[in-house]
Amino acid sequence: MISPQTSFGNALQTQWDWRAAGNFMFGGSGGALIFMAAIASYPAAPSPVVGLAALVFVGVGLFLVWLEIGRPWRFLHVFFHPQTSWMTREASVSLLLFATTLTGVLFQIPVLIVVAGLSGFLFLYCQGRILRASKGIPAWREPSVVPLMMITGLVEGTAILFILLIFSNGEQAWLMYVLMGLLLGRLAGWQYYRRRLAADKAPRGALKVLDGINKPQVILGNALPLLLLAVATALPELMKPLALLACILGTASGWLMKFIIVARAAKVQGYALGKLKKGRPDIKPPVRREKDKFVFSRD
User: Fold this and answer.
1) Can you say how many angstroms the Cα of residue 185 is from the centroid of all Cα atoms in its chain?
2) Percent of the residues in the chain that have a pLDDT greater than 70, as a whole number
3) CA angle, 72 as apex, 70 and 77 as ends, to 5°?
4) pLDDT tens digit string along 117-150?
C-alpha cells in the first residue's frame, strides 16, 4: 500500500527569467509612482517630470518582457484574451495608463491624472494576479503574494516620488510618514508570505532561496529605512540626506524581493508516489463465475 504523502519538485521554471522579473520590478514601481503622484498632487496635476518618470519605469518593464517573447512581433496576441488572462488585462490597463498620464501631465488636466492614478493601481493589482494565477508554482500561487507585490510596489513608488520631490524642492514631510507606514506593512506582508509558504510545504529549494534574503529584507530593506526616516523627522536639518538613503534602500530591497520571487524562488511543483509500506501487498484472486469461458486461477 502507498501512504498518502505530497512532495514537491525543486526544478526552477524556465519560462520567465530576469526580463520578466524586470517587468514586475520597474513596471510595478511606475504604476505605483503615478498612483502616489495623483494622490500627492490632488486636486492639481503633478509635474511633467514625475509623470514622465512613471511612464519610463512602466515602459522599461514592458520592454523587458517584450524581449522575452519567443516571437516578439506577435505581441499583439496578448490583447486577445481579456476574459481569462491577467496578462491581457495588465497590457490593456497599461494602454490606459500611458494615454491618461501623458495627456494629463502635458496639458495639466487633473481629472485625467485621477484616471491615471487608478490605472496605476490596477496595473499593480494585475501584476499580483498574474503570479497568483500560476498554479504550478507554489511561490507564486500563494494568495498573499498579491498584497505583497502591491504593497512592495507602493513602497517603491512612494520612495521614488520622495526622491523626485527632494531634488525639485517639493513638499515631502507628509510623504515621509506614508512611506514609514508602507514599510511596516511590507515587512508584515513579507513575513506572512514566508510563513504561509512554509505552512503549505512549499519546495525546500524555494524556501531556502527566500530565507537567503530574509535578513537583508528585514534589516536593510525595512528596519534601517524606518530608522533613518524616524531620525529625519527629529533632525529636520538632516532630513534630505537621511530620507534619500532610506528611499534608495526601500526601493532596491523591493526590486530584489521581486527578482528573487519571480526568477529564483519559482520552483515548479512536482509529484511523488509516497513511501511504500514494508511487506507483500495483498492480492485478491479473480472472481470465478460459471458463465466465464476461461477460468483463471491464482496458480
Assistant:
1) 15
2) 83
3) 95
4) 999 999 999 999 999 999 889 999 999 999 999 9
End-to-end CA distance of the chain: 23
The conformational region for residue 108 under phi > 0 = left, psi -120 to 50 = alpha, else beta, is left
- The model's pTM is 0.85
Q: Which three cell numbers stand for residue 34?
A: 503615478
3-state secondary structure of 207: helix
Phi then psi dihedrals of residue 79, to 5 deg: -90, 5
Give me the count of residues in the chain: 299
Predicted confidence at residue 158, as pLDDT, reads 98
Q: Which domain holds residue 102?
A: 18-264
Number of domains in the chain: 1
Q: Which are the contacts of 216, defined by CB distance < 8 A and separation ≥ 6?
A: 253, 256
Peptide bond into 236 cis (omega under 30): no
User: pLDDT for 1-57, tens place per residue?
Assistant: 333 334 446 789 888 899 999 999 999 999 999 999 999 999 999 999 999 999 999
- 278 within domain boundaries: no
Largest CA distance in the chain: 100
Torsions phi, psi for 2 (to 5 deg):
-115, 120
Asked if pLDDT for residue 297 goes beyond 50, the answer is no
DSSP 108: T
In a domain, 218, yes or no: yes
- Using CA atoms, how far apart are residues 53 and 256, in angstroms rounded to an integer? 20
φ, ψ for residue 267, nearest 5 deg = -80, 135
